[in-house]
User: Fold this.
Amino acid sequence: MNGTRITSEDTSRISIVIGIIIGVLATAIALYFVFFAHTVKEAMTGFDPNRPVPDDATLRKRLTAEQYHVVRENGTETAFKNKLWDKFLPGIYVDIITREPLFSSADKFDGGTGRPTFSKPISKDSIVERDDNSFDMHRTEVRAKRSDAHLGHLINDPTSPTGQRYAVNSAALYFILTEDMEREGYGSYMSAVSPVTQK
Assistant:
């Protein structure tokens, strides 16, 4: 530099420094998002009974408005207008909050409710049944034991192989296809799933 005069060489150096700073910032931002995405995937993959149940603030960010309304405000989704009611592919249905396995496609049937319907859970230990006297009706509410998520209702149903129908909200469940179960950390639950012939 000559006095206060900026030469083309100085301009070139400044451009290089600015380019390096921008490159470092871009790399840092990219690494942050890769790490964040990995952390979220880790938190949402497989079921770990030692993993804490996410707090309310985390659930509000992670779940859709409808999912949150169902699992934390005891909501009910619209019949016949939800993503899982008419799907009969082989796999397991897990808790949307904790990813704990709750129901199997082997026990799913069309109960005419417009919501996923099961004859039984994978394990009764993962489900809690409570009296529900809301809306001037007496019903049995079904909740996930670990997450305390509202799932739906248990109804006596002579058309069910067990005489019972678990009518569950799609919004409370996350479905994992049989072919993805091993990769998603559910290989030990393969025996709970059998080929489904019902369409």
About this structure: DSSP finds four helices and eight strands in the chain.
